[in-house]
Amino acid sequence: MPSNPAYLHLRDFIEEVGPDPARPSKGLALQLLVSLHIPEKEVQSDDVDIHDIPTLIRFFCEPGRSADLYQPDSFVYAWGSFLTATSQDRKFHILLHAHTVDRHPGNLTNTESYCNRCPEAAQPTVTFQGIVNNSGGQLNSGSTLLHYRLQVTVYDSSTKAEHTFPVTIYLKNGQRWTNFPSLSPQTQVFVGGRIFGTTKENQQLAVLADDIHFLQTMPRTVPPSPASTGKRKHPDRWARQSSPHTPSKAARLTDTALAQPSTQCSSTLQSPATQKNSAIPSVEADKETVVSWPPTDSEPDVSPASKQDSPAERRSQRSRNRISYADILSYE
User: What pLDDT was estimated at residue 174?
Assistant: First the structure.
């Protein structure tokens, strides 16, 4: 069973102060001994014994706070995770691994005046999660309150291991719990309540329940471990990046020229008369006309894909291909 949360809030007077025996090398680790006072209330059950419960408070003193602040007869407020255990001399006690320990302000030189300014006694409050084992008593009937015995598993930081202990929760007589369903064994619940003593049988912590919440029990399945395939392969994301060489402008021009169909002159020459008629309007518009002749064997055809001429070379080619007006008239 996995460890679950279990928290205790208390306020009481310190009886003894000493180093934490579980951490002897830690200078700031302290242990406070408190006789947890349980005030008698109107709610009682004949199987519960109301008495002070020995409580050990273990915590780390804050670096900026002196350990001399915690002295016998000083009043403290403590909160943290708790568990119950039995010492070697068969003495039942509560062990509180406190997250915070605050001292009530005041001057301890006058103990009577200091105690008169401290708060009155109150039942310690607890919240914990546990699993129902069995039940006993009846609601609104008899001198024994309806109760359920729970099994609680927590993590003990002193031993660095899990610790399981029993807690008995009691339901107060009245209309509050009349319609509350009975708890069957193995039911997992979250309980909030107040400590009001210990059970006479087996000496377990007795808690008067204020709230009970049902928790859904999920089957514990261990996820299958993946088969060992050696070193895990990661996708090569850098291979998806663009090439460090940017395509040149000349290559883009070549691709564009290849995509466009080339315009070539007719394989047969036009007749002189046709050339004359077509050339006269050009003469009036321009004194010189550029005539494109089909490629000959002496002039190899240079496609744009094979060579890219510079602007100066293209102007030189146009000047060589020009024909004068006198040459045009000579065809007649």
Answer: 93
How many domains would you assign to the chain? 2
Please state, in angstroms and rounded to a whole number, the distance separating the CA atoms of residues 183 and 215: 12
Task: Name the domain boundary from 199, 214, 229.
Answer: 214
Neighbour tally for 75: CB within 10 Å: 19
Other Cβ atoms less than 10 A from the Cβ of 188: the count is: 18
Q: What is the pLDDT of residue 98?
A: 95
| Inside any domain, residue 222 | no
Q: Which residues of the chain have pLDDT under 70?
A: 1-2, 63-64, 66-67, 217-312, 315-332
Altogether, the residues listed in the chain come to a count of: 332
**Residue 210 belongs to domain spanning:** 6-214
User: Cα-flanking dihedrals φ and ψ of residue 138, to 5°?
Assistant: -135, 150
- CA dist., res. 58 & res. 63, Å (int): 16
Is-above-0.85 flag for pTM?
no
pLDDT (0 to 100) of residue 191: 97
| Separation CA 23–CA 160 (nearest Å) | 12
Contacts (Cβ under 8 Å, ≥6 apart) of 69: 103
Are residues 176 and 58 both part of a single domain?
yes
* 178 and 276 inside one domain: no
